[in-house]
């Protein structure tokens, strides 16, 4: 097996979406495992971060994630456990309703940056991406995250995909 520091070069940031403001890791894992159209063996993300900045380990880093459609190789998935789309873009017919309205809290943001720095130190990460920059099939990680991602890339000295 190839060493992990030769395997991972990208971090992909996600948000949990428009269904629940602040879901638990267990709720996201259950959704991934129980969905008939998209059942997985485990949560698709390697890490999750809640609004209070608590970091959770998801899928073991030894295993390829399942978080970007047909493009998981070399990518570490981090899900922010919040609805970070205040404009509800990408919701189709539901866009006329405000389903939920999460917040990109300071604690969540600080933990994300610390985790990205830690992963960069371990694996030599080159790229920081929002999900929609890899796959255009989903409006993820929301407009609040995308408004900050270029600044995060500068702080972490990472590139855009």
UniProtKB/TrEMBL annotation:
Gene3D superfamilies, A to Z: Peptidoglycan recognition protein-like (3.40.80.10)
Domain Peptidoglycan recognition protein family: 2-117
Stored SMART domains: PGRP (SM00701)
Origin superkingdom: Bacteria
GO molecular function: N-acetylmuramoyl-L-alanine amidase activity; zinc ion binding
GO biological process: peptidoglycan catabolic process
SUPFAM superfamilies, alphabetized: N-acetylmuramoyl-L-alanine amidase-like (SSF55846)
InterPro entries per UniProt: Amidase/PGRP_sf, Amidase_domain, PGRP, PGRP_domain_met/bac
Recorded family membership: Belongs to the N-acetylmuramoyl-L-alanine amidase 2 family.
PANTHER family membership: PEPTIDOGLYCAN RECOGNITION PROTEIN, PEPTIDOGLYCAN-RECOGNITION PROTEIN LC-RELATED
Protein name: N-acetylmuramoyl-L-alanine amidase
Organism of this sequence: Apibacter muscae
């Amino acid at each position: 097996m190839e060493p992990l520091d030769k395997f991972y070069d990208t971090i992909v940031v996600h948000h949990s979406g428009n269904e629940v403001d602040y879901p638990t890791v267990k709720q996201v894992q259950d959704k991934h495992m129980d969905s008939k159209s998209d059942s997985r063996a485990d949560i698709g993300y390697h890490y999750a971060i809640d609004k209070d900045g608590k970091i959770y380990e998801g899928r073991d880093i030894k295993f390829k994630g399942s978080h970007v459609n047909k493009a998981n190789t070399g990518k570490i998935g981090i899900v922010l456990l919040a609805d970070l789309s205040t404009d509800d873009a990408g919701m189709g017919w539901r866009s006329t309703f405000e389903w939920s309205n999460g917040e990109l809290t300071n604690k969540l943001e600080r933990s994300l940056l610390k985790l990205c720095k830690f992963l960069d130190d371990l694996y030599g990460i080159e790229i920081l991406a929002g999900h929609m920059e890899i796959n255009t099939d989903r409006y993820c990680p929301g407009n609040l995250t995308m408004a900050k991602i270029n600044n995060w890339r500068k702080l972490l000295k990472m590139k855009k995909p």
